[in-house]
Amino acid sequence: VQLVESGGGLVYPGGSLRLSCAGSGFTASNTYMGWARQVPGKGLVRIASIYTNGTTNYEDSVKGRFTISRDNAKNGVFLQMNNLKPADTAVYYCNAPYGSARVWGRGTQVTVLS
User: Percent of the chain beyond pLDDT 90?
Assistant: First the structure.
């Protein structure tokens, strides 16, 4: 089971990025999937999730700006990020449950210039 994130980069405040997470070894559409982010020296924060029935949840700081959606072509999920702020600078990780464990990708860096 593997998750691979892509789409990170440098952007100015107010800009947009779309992150992609491609999965293998499991069927993404049959499970919950989520995005989390981590700033150096701080803990991992879960910011968006999508359930098998299509329900989505967002952490307060990204509500109204970020959108999680399924990417059926790549067996994964997208994270559309709009109106980015310097506080959004972090490494972004995709995750999904697998049995009793949770699988994480290696992350993709997002930097919003201040």
Answer: 92
